[in-house]
Design goal:
Jelly Rolls; 16% helix; five-stranded antiparallel β-sheet; alpha+beta; seven-stranded antiparallel β-sheet; 3 helices
Length: 199
Amino acid sequence: MRRLTMMATMLAAVMSAASATAMAQSNLGPQFSVLQIQSFEPLGQSFTAEYASLLEIGFAFGTLNAQFAAVPVTIDLYLGAGAGGTFIAQRSINPTPTASGLEAEFAYADFSGITLDVGEVYTAWLSTTNSYWGVGGTQDLYAGGQVYLGVPSGSGTEDLMFDVRSKVELSEPHPLLLLAPGVLLLAAARRRAASSPLH
């Protein structure tokens, strides 16, 4: 009996393992408009952090003026709602050109390694060096933040299409746990066989 108890304890020790999964908080659309980034600078979207370990931030970008070069887009992350917050990090990305601004596609900047304070509001600001890029807007309003436009144009009636992805540690059954019932039954059968009068 003591041996079975020890085996059960060992199996319980490996029954769960930390597993990382990506969790998203987002406003994916549907797309209602496209805002030329350079024309509306400073152009930003705030969001309320739901998870701590930030992975990446994405926006839906579309080609507005193909006669210009497809230059990188810069994303500046600040703590706080709107302008005047605390600077956290800056990343640059190269979105994929699209057939038009109203066919915006998501592109993501790597912000891994940054820890957010759950419940705090953050703002991601977009900037670029010419008028090639636009960013998709949607009337499906996001409750945890808002769009900020350097040039007023429908502010309060739409938000930017964005996607904030974070890493969350979850507990899940360890593969060895699937063997536990069979191992315990086999051990019990061997113990009974060993104590049988026929042996």
